Amino acid sequence: MKIAICVAFYFRKNRLAYLAEVLQNHKNFPCEAHVIVLTNTDNAVEIQDIVAAAPSRSGQFYWEIISVSNILHGWVLTWAHKGIFKNILDDPSYTHFMYTEDDIAVTTNNLAYWLLHRELLKPHGLYPSFIRVEWNHVMGTWTCSDVVQNIDLQIAPKLLIRDGMHHYVNAPQPYQGLYLYDRELMLEHRASRTFDFNSFGVFEPDYVGVPERANLALTFENVPDGFTSRNILNYSEKYKLVNYDSFVHHLPNTFADNPQAQGGKVPVRDLIR
Question: Nearest CA to 52 among 20, 27, 5?
Fold first, then answer.
């Protein structure tokens, strides 16, 4: 397995610690990983700050920095990875591609979860979902960054794999802040309307803007009948709990620590009802 990972990093010195943790997780992947940090700065001192934050390169782990300094607005930086995506797709040595924001800690367990459930879901036209989580210091528990309402199993779209052991459910807000695709999904995304920056209004929910729309990818494209998005969560029918390995930590705890924010208030242990 060989994965290319694009990370959008709009330079802010106080966010370098998040980027460092994100890249360290990528270095721990049990496969060849090529990480491209896309940044808005071409300032030599700031580039050196990014270099200092990145972990050392190793046999299977390589990173590089590409400055995208000609963008009109920081929001557009999230779309800059699409050009890299096309180049990676043209290189058959790459088996997977991931795009992520600069503050999402995707671990080896997350990767293993996706690879396993991707194979189970492939015949159904679906793929595994991640869910961003944050630590809510007031509540003293992990909460959902983006899902702001509980999943009601009585009405939510569900899937039971024939072996009777794997249950899946659509989240009402399936935003992840990233996407991970194999070559089959990469080819589909490249040919889809959502690959184009100018595809405004193509299955675009009202809770995302221009930057976030860049990582929706196939979320709302070619959704099978009866489902609300392509990405779907694995859960335990017995315990009514979402698979822990689908949780990716949104490192700044942006919503959980903000009493005015709607996100970060639903505990992950209570997500399914």
Answer: 20
Report residue 212 as tokens: 């976030």
Rounded to whole angstroms, the Cα distance separating 173 from 191 reads 25
**Number of neighbours of residue 269 by Cβ within 10 angstroms:** 13
What tens digit of pLDDT does each residue of 142-181 get? 999 999 999 999 999 999 997 767 999 999 999 999 999 9
The length of the chain in residues reads 273
Compute the distance between CA of residue 151 and CA of residue 266 in angstroms, rounded to an integer: 10
CA atoms within a 13 Å half-sphere pointing along the CA-CB vector of 142 = 14
139, two tokens: 């509540």
Cβ–Cβ under 8 Å, residues 271 and 242: yes
Contacting residues for 149 by C-beta, under 8 A, at least 6 apart: 172, 173, 266
> What are the pLDDT digits (tens) for 33-69?
999 999 999 999 999 999 999 999 998 999 999 999 7
Residues 153, 209: Cα–Cα separation, whole Å:
29
Residue ranges in the chain assigned as alpha helix (H) = 16-27, 44-53, 81-89, 108-121, 183-191, 210-213
pTM above 0.85, yes or no: yes
Cβ-contact 37, 47 below 8 angstroms: no
Structure tokens at 171: 């989240």
What radius of gyration do the chain's Cα atoms show? 18
Q: Angle at CA 84, nearest 5°, toward 192 and 76?
A: 75
Q: Would you give the distance in Å from CA 228 to the centre of its chain?
A: 18
CB atoms within 10 A of CB 151: 22
Distance CA 223, CA 231 (A): 9
For 118, half-sphere exposure in the C-beta direction (CA atoms, 13 angstrom radius) is 15
